[in-house]
Amino acid sequence: MRGLALLLFALIGLTGCTRSDHRTEIVLQRFFGECGAVYDQSTDVAAADTECGILTTLINKFQAENPDVRVSVNVVAWPGYAQLSAQIAAGDPPDLVVMHQSVISDYSARGLLEPMEGVLKDAGISADDFSDAGKRGVIKNGRIYAMPWDTIGRLWHINTQLMAQAGLMRNGRPVLPTSPQELLAQARQFRARTGKPYLLQAQVGAPDYYVANLYTYLLAQDAVIFPDARHVRLDTPQARAIVQLYRTLNQEGLTARNQDFPAATAAFMNGEGGIFPTGTWMIGPYDAEAAIPGRPLNGHYAALPFPRLWGHDAAFVDGHSWIMPKRSRSPAELQVIARFLRFMAANNFEWTRTGQLPAFRAVLAMPKFRALPHRADIAAMAATGAQLPDYVRRQSAIQGVIGEELEAAVNGIKPVDKALADAQRRVDELLAEIP
């Protein structure tokens, strides 16, 4: 009996030591990698760098400033949508999830996301606060389905020393082409004077590269790429001219060939070519490389939007955003979500240090944002950035199909006309299969 009494006493004592946590909990889900070993307890956002480091310290800081809240974070492998779909199917999705704006329609069209006008209003955030590109990215079928977090796109990353050697600098700035004919003329001049390719391109295992070029210059001409939710329009004179330009660059040896992204990045850092068209997210790494004495980029790096070769200024962009999967939430949970979104909006500048463009007009106007390296040169993309129509679903799969055909065309495996006709047919077939 004495032993039983001691056991009961111990159990009562253990129960008394594990009181329930009465804080309101929200669950966040994100990608951008895991860096807890470095930033696990840090709240010094200004001292953080990288996407993972900045976002981790922001969440830590929110938790520290809101002790009545418990923030649980799920870090998923990029992009995490298979896991999210499984969570939704199981009826237990997170409260807030980082999602690419190009993916939102896949979920909103099936009624899997909560429209966010109400929670954003509680956070003191209006759609008028968003940048033009940010607003276009999160409004689907007339409803706001996310809070935009940034705008991401592609830039021309430029070795200004080689451009000067080629005679393509004026008043300390690169001279960029204003037509496809001028681009070819500059590329030939660059090759003749430097012995190196004008462009470095990640052409292997990167179907998104050619698709981004094609979309950008079709959007610049106000071409209707997707006339409706079931069809794409690629077999057109405008598309043929764009693809032919890149085919000519390859045929004449004016661009590097057979490089994947790591190889093209290494070539750019080692001064093996003039211009590398790749993402906004590479500004930080390339700027750091340009600060190292003795390196080929040292003091010779610039980043600019794609040049206007056709039509008007345009940039095909995407963006990260915070979405709310549909689920039942208490008023207390909704209030905490609003507080978190208000906090993140107020700290959007910190995120722009990754190289991405801000999603809020107020940050675009900040002197400290424009003082960041190259940001004044690329800020216009927050206005000129455009996405596909909000009814276009399965954009990643579509990108893969078009990218395969464009790669075949540019590398001379297929005639341009046939590649574009095949891409159009295959995408239409894909869209026809969507429930």
Quick summary:
The protein has helices spanning 2-17, 36-39, 51-65, 81-89, 104-108, 117-122, 132-138, 160-165, 180-194, 207-219, 237-251, 261-269, 283-290, 331-346, 348-352, 361-364, 367-370, 375-378, 381-384, 395-410, 416-432; strands spanning 24-30, 69-75, 96-100, 139-140, 143-144, 147-148, 154-159, 169-170, 173-174, 275-279, 301-305, 315-316, 320-323, 385-386.
Task: Give an account of the 3D structure.
With 435 residues, this protein is an alpha/beta fold. It has 21 helices and 14 strands. It has a five-stranded mixed β-sheet with strand order 2-1-3-13-6. It has a three-stranded antiparallel β-sheet with strand order 10-7-11. Helix 10 (207-219) crosses helix 11 and helix 10 (207-219) crosses helix 20. The protein is globular, with a radius of gyration of 25 Å. Residues 1-19 have low confidence and may be disordered.
Keywords:
435 residues, alpha/beta, three-stranded antiparallel sheet, 14 strands, globular
Quick check: average pLDDT? 94
User: Care to count the β-strands?
Assistant: 14
Approximately what portion of the residues adopt beta-strand conformation? 5-15%
Shape field? globular
Into which percent range does the helicity of residues fall?
40-55%
Structural class: alpha/beta
How large, in whole angstroms, is the Cα Rg?
25 Å
Strand order, largest beta sheet = 2-1-3-13-6
